[in-house]
């Protein structure tokens, strides 16, 4: 018997989260080679390559899905995706590609919750620092244009910002907080560090890459209009087998 394709294991892991909203990067909207490789050879009903696009497959019957196509190639395309238990009122994919060798995008979705609209931005920034700065400027403009007047915002994804040079800019221009930093501010240790140093401490996001032994701080969740109740990085071999990035999970309460 062939092993379960990773896409099926990912669907199970996403279901195990029980999350209201899921932010995903490098989702395959179409991949003809994988379909040809697995679709005909794996016949078990629980061990097959899905005929649907990955974001639709992950969403299943219970979640709404949105997809922003970024990279297009001969055998398919991939991009960012958002899964939500709330209806998605509208969506728009911002092309923030900075050069011909990296196709990057920011997927903006408006969630229609009982408490009002929530703006979600799925982010995947470039590998070069100059590109990331220009893409961050585009993100700031997109948020200010589409979610004015302090409307609730969640920005999450792979920022590739391993030196953490972008957090301060986002905080000052958008009024957002990074979830791990917000939690540490309220901890007793955080207060001690600030008082001992005599100045505000530097923002330190969580380590998420590589998933097998996280060291680099690449992935972030920034929020506005939410109370951060809990945040953690999911470690362990089961997660390392699913992705090269360890997932971040945060519990948020809309203010």
Protein described:
The chain has 255 residues and is of the alpha+beta class. The protein has a single domain (6-254), classed as Endonuclease/exonuclease/phosphatase (Deoxyribonuclease I, Chain A, 4-Layer Sandwich), CATH 3.60.10.10. The protein is built from eight helices and eleven strands. A six-stranded mixed sheet has the order 4-5-6-7-9-8. The chain has a three-stranded antiparallel sheet with strand order 1-3-2. Strands 10-11 form a two-stranded antiparallel sheet. A hairpin with a 2-residue loop joins strand 2 (64-73) and strand 3. Helix 4 packs parallel to helix 5.
* Ends distance: 50 Å
Low-pLDDT residue intervals, each spanning 5 or more residues: 40-46, 188-193
Q: What is CATH's topology name?
A: Deoxyribonuclease I, Chain A
Give the count of structural domains. 1
Question: What labels describe this entry?
Answer:
single chain; 255 residues; alpha+beta; Deoxyribonuclease I, Chain A; 6-stranded mixed β-sheet; 8 helices; 29% helix; 33% strand
Task: Provide a short characterization of the protein structure.
With 255 residues, the chain is an alpha+beta fold. The chain has eight helices and eleven strands.
Q: Helices, strands, pairings?
A:
Elements: H1 6-17, E1 21-31, H2 32-39, H3 54-59, E2 64-73, E3 76-84, E4 88-95, E5 105-113, E6 116-124, H4 129-146, E7 153-158, H5 167-174, E8 177-178, H6 179-186, H7 188-197, E9 219-224, E10 226-233, H8 237-240, E11 248-254
Helix pairs in contact: 4-5
């Amino acid at each position: 018997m062939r092993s379960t394709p990773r896409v099926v294991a990912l669907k199970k892991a996403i279901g195990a989260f029980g999350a209201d909203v899921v932010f995903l990067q490098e989702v395959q909207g179409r991949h003809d080679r994988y379909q040809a490789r697995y679709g005909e050879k794996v016949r078990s009903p629980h061990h097959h390559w899905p005929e649907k696009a990955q974001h639709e497959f992950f969403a299943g019957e219970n979640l709404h899905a949105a997809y922003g196509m970024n990279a297009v190639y001969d055998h398919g395309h991939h991009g960012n995706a958002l899964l939500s238990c709330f209806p998605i009122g509208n969506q728009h994919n911002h092309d923030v590609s900075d050069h011909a060798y990296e196709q990057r995008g920011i997927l903006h979705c408006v969630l229609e919750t009982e408490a009002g609209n929530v703006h979600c931005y799925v982010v995947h920034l470039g590998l070069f620092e100059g590109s990331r700065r220009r893409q961050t400027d585009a993100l700031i403009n997109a948020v200010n244009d589409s979610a004015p007047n302090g409307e609730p915002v969640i920005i999450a994804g792979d920022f590739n910002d391993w030196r953490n040079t972008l957090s301060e800019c986002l905080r000052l221009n958008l009024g957002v907080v990074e979830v791990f930093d917000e939690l540490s501010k309220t901890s007793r240790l955080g207060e001690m560090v600030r008082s001992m140093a005599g100045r505000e401490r530097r923002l330190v996001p969580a380590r998420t890459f590589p998933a097998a032994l996280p060291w680099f701080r690449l992935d972030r969740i920034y929020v506005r209009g939410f109370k951060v109740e809990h945040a953690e990085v999911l470690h362990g071999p089961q997660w390392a087998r699913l992705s090269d990035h360890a997932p971040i999970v945060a519990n948020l309460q809309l203010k």
